[in-house]
Amino acid sequence: MENLKLLERMLQTVRQMDVASIEIPDWKCVGCGECCVGEENFVRVFYTEAKRLSEVMGVDVHDIIEPNPQTISGVHLGWILRREDNKCIFFDGGRGRCRIYQNRPIVCRTYPFMLDFEEGRIALRVFECRGLGNRNSTSPHSLKRLLK
Question: What is the largest CA-CA distance in the chain?
Fold first, then answer.
């Protein structure tokens, strides 16, 4: 419950930000799917996101999530979408596309960008992605809309 309150405060802060001040590097998704596959690419989700997704799909929430394998002192760090053969279960490798694109989690909507809250400051972290350096299709305003 405490984590949910913290998330809500963080999202409220983002919603009130002057988004024009966020510098976003050129980026456009190239549809490679590398963010969905790989030994260390986990799709982290909040339980509430997973619950909503399971309801949309008509399945039990535990059919689509599993504990995050990363731990601190033996405690799992939340949830990830289930994986098979080192890829998200919703990634269609044949088409190179997400099968739940319209309902994908927040982390998928904003990848390769992540807002990092450290010492009272908000910083934009950018993860490695083939789409970086391509013509920018993501503006600060569209990033903010994704978080609403």
Answer: 43
